[in-house]
Design a protein that fits this description.
- This protein has 17 helices and 22 strands.
- By secondary structure, the protein is α+β, with helices and mostly antiparallel strands.
- The strands form six sheets. An eight-stranded antiparallel beta sheet has the order 13-12-9-10-11-14-21-19, sandwiched between helices. Strands 3-2-1-4-5 form a five-stranded parallel beta sheet, with helices on both faces.
- The structure holds adenosine-5'-diphosphate.
- The site of adenosine-5'-diphosphate has 19 residues, from strand 12 and strand 13.
Length: 503
């Protein structure tokens, strides 16, 4: 049934950080009023400053703030919002939240609760995809008995992956290489799944050797039309979490793109999907592709698709939610784009999160550079949430130009006060294999030592960075604040560790 278009005047963004700011920006361009919500540590956050209105959630932990549906609905009522944009993470893939929005007459800018539910559970999604003729990674339904699971693992042949049916965020996965290790791994995975997702069901997938993670962006309107907006290559991963993404995929051929794009559209249609979504695939060395999962929301890495297609995906999400049909325009990929995720973490200290006060921030600019940020100088990055600070996105006419731009932009990025992964990203981008586009999901693991190795040029870089900090602190003439441990003195002291303050 087609609903009459309804203009959404006031949109509550049930999120924080860079994605909340990202959504607010498009709302402003469209002349829609934005309502931000914020926790106590986020009182001075950029998404709060940028929004037209902002309401406190009270509390600090995700559970008592951005995940608290009752508080969010109360603010929606008080502010008179007519729609909710969930961003990614938090409540974005929670079917009960989408259903509760609908019951309250609030438009949820995303798919139906039914689609979220169907695709949220991995084995159910796999079953539906298989019925729709979309190839899936060889595997099993949920298995409870270890003996049965072991014989299934033998049938698939080792190595296998034990996965939580309700898993997500790269968690709840275990690779098993030998039958002897299977029993303990199976039980451990069930325990982990229960504590992380409140659901101990696990299943098996054949472990694909050195695959590529390639995903397709799709858009579907309420009139029943589904299109894809090409692929994103997301194989640069640490612990199954993406760090760098690019489009087009270096591995792609015209024929493979056509077949995968068709499969992605079929996958979305098979679950009656509306709004923006992503179909994730694994591609093996023989360029065979397999459905991995669907993400029923905007992806972190959506900007690279925007850069090559010229489509504002958040605008499309809002218009679809308003009941507008998709535009009938020809889409093509113009040039290439790449994204680096900038995290407040220390690559030289086990990638531990590095929250604290950002003392100085000077993001890169110039041709083809987009910095989707959630922070500013003077903001204290809270320790309660994901340490993603910003996404550096660049566009170039061809991959060579995009790489050169990314390298230059990472060089320009200055962030003083907390540690970031910027020096680590620089090394990946400059790695010869990455530069050739010859990489799969094992790239970071394979090159970890090399990427974290300290060399002569780091000495010079650190000396320069430390001198810059000293000069700046001299100008500032103030006593050190809470981030003193990350300041110039420690930059000198830790000269044995590259990247300490050279971001
Ligand atoms: P999550 O939902 O936790 O993000 P996914 O199922 O999307 O988990 O997988 C995340 C990553 O884990 C993939 O991008 C890939 O690198 C790796 N992975 C998942 N399944 C397999 C598999 N069967 N074989 C090899 N690698 C896999």
């Amino acid at each position: 049934m087609t609903k009459r278009p309804r203009r959404l005047e006031k949109i509550l963004i049930a999120n924080r950080g860079e994605i909340a700011v990202r959504v607010e920006r498009t709302c402003r361009e469209l002349g829609r009023t934005t309502v931000a919500v914020f926790s106590d540590p986020d009182r001075h956050a950029l998404h709060v400053r940028y929004a037209d209105e902002a309401y406190p959630l009270g509390g600090s932990t995700p559970a008592e703030t951005y995940l608290d549906q009752a508080k969010i609905f109360d603010i929606a009522r008080r502010s008179g919002a007519d729609a909710v944009h969930p961003g990614y993470g938090f409540l974005s893939e929670n079917p009960s939240f989408a259903a509760a929005c609908r019951e309250r007459g609030l438009v949820f800018i995303g798919p139906s609760a039914e689609s979220i539910e169907l695709m949220g559970e991995k084995t159910r999604a796999r079953e539906r995809m298989s019925r729709a003729g979309v190839p899936i990674v060889p595997g099993t339904p949920p298995l409870a008995a270890v003996q049965e699971a072991l014989s299934e693992a033998r049938r698939l042949s080792f190595p296998v992956l034990i996965k939580a049916a309700a898993g997500g965020g790269g968690k709840g996965m275990r690779r098993v290489d030998r039958p002897d290790d299977f029993g303990p791994a199976f039980e451990a995975c069930r325990r982990e799944a229960l504590s992380a997702f409140g659901d101990d069901r696990v299943y098996l997938e054949k472990y694909l050797e050195e695959p590529h993670h390639v995903e397709f962006q799709i858009l579907a309107d309420a009139q029943g039309r589904t299109i894809h907006l090409f692929e994103r290559e997301c194989s640069i991963q640490r612990r199954h979490q993406k760090i760098i993404e690019e489009t087009p995929s270096p591995l792609m051929t015209k024929d493979l793109r056509a077949r995968m794009g068709q499969a992605a559209v079929r996958a979305a249609e098979a679950c009656g999907y509306t709004n923006a979504g992503t179909i994730e695939f694994l591609v093996d060395a023989g360029r065979r592709f397999y459905f991995l999962e669907m993400n029923t929301r905007l992806q972190v890495e959506h900007p690279i698709t925007e850069m090559v297609t010229g489509v504002d995906l958040v605008e499309r999400q809002i218009r679809i939610a308003e009941g507008e049909p998709l535009e009938d325009r020809h889409l093509s990929q113009r040039g290439t784009a790449m994204e680096c995720r900038i995290y407040a973490e220390d690559p030289w200290n086990h990638f531990l999160p590095s929250p604290g006060l950002i003392r100085k921030l000077s993001p890169p600019g110039g041709p083809g550079v987009r910095d989707d940020t959630g922070v500013y100088a003077g903001f204290t990055v809270p320790m309660e949430y994901d340490p993603l600070l910003a996404k550096l996105v660049v566009w170039g006419e061809n991959r060579q130009q995009t790489l050169a731009r990314m390298s230059r932009a990472l060089e320009e990025y200055r962030l003083i006060g907390i540690r970031t992964n910027i020096p680590y990203l620089r090394r990946i981008v400059r790695h010869p294999e990455f530069a050739r586009g010859a990489y799969d999901t094992h790239f970071l693991m394979k090159h970890q030592d090399e990427l974290l190795k300290f060399d002569r040029s780091d000495h010079d870089r650190i000396a320069l960075a430390a001198a810059a900090v000293l000069a700046w602190r001299g100008e500032e003439k103030s006593t050190a604040g809470p981030a003193a441990g990350n300041s110039a003195a420690s930059a000198w002291k830790m000269a044995g560790r590259p990247g300490v303050s050279d971001s």
